Hints:
Layout: H1 14-33, H2 36-50, H3 56-67, H4 73-94, E1 107-108, H5 113-122, E2 125-128, H6 138-142, E3 148-152, H7 158-168, E4 176-178, H8 181-192, E5 196-200, E6 209-213, E7 216-220, H9 223-231, E8 235-244, E9 247-255, H10 263-284, H11 300-304
Parallel strand pairs: 1-9, 2-5, 2-8, 3-4, 3-5
Antiparallel strand pairs: 6-7, 8-9
Helix pairs in contact: 2-4, 3-4, 9-10
Amino acid sequence: MTITSPDYPPPFGPLRMRAEYAGLRAALLPIRAMPLETASAISGTLWRAVAPRLHRHSRVREHLAFAFPELSEDARERIALDSWENLGRVTAEGAHVDRFATDLDRFELPDDVERYRRLARTGCVFVSLHLGNWEIAALPALGKNVSVAGTYQAIQNPLVDRYIRSLRLPLYAGGLYPKGHATSRKLVSIVRSGGSVGFLADLRERRGIKVTFFDRPAYANPFPASLARMAGYPIVAGCMVRTGGVRFRLHLKEIEQTRSGDRALDVRETTQSIHDVFEYWIRQYPGQWMWSHRKWALRPEDMSSGEAAAD
């Protein structure tokens, strides 16, 4: 019997996985060799030029049309191009993500950042979204002597996954765990022991709960609200918006939680409050959000009741 693990490629595909890994390292080598500003600018320019020719650009246009019906088509197209450029910049900056820890002068912090750091030290649930540069949102917010555990979407190729995780790991002193049931149990254990955790909470969750987002139904992950309710923790939303080039401003806001005694109601309304804050920030910086994902795609039972799916 052959036993496989996340640390080693399965026996049926080692050559393909090693080739993918080698290709990734080869692609990232020149990006990591460039100055950060240069790599970010080049990647942003390329994505702005190429991405509108891809099939996902039609999805971006559709989402912007119902999110901002009051804007002209030209105005929405500019937002779409800005969004692709930002995604290109984030992609290149991701190759340098482990180096941001020594370059904190790039970040403008809110005056009350110490208040949020105190919350993190005593136990807190952080939520963020794919706005600005989400990869580094936790870094300047936390500062020294603050430990937060994070989650990420694991990559199927274990060699690639291990390398990408190694770049991000310095930003999460409390550990970085792949999404899944085992990680959910681990995060419950962390908060029960007084630790803080962080999530990117704006993506569609197929098994989640329905919220209203830009006046349309969408599915959201209830786990951050549920975890905070269980632990009696505050929830802090944060985002790292781009102010120009590779410079950023941090926004932080404590989420008002519903505490009625009805668990399902509390989780649903608090998850809605999280998305209300997310929507507010996206409306302020629409060209920095990732419009290409299927946030508004509904379940089959929703569509059968007469609601249309937004792909």
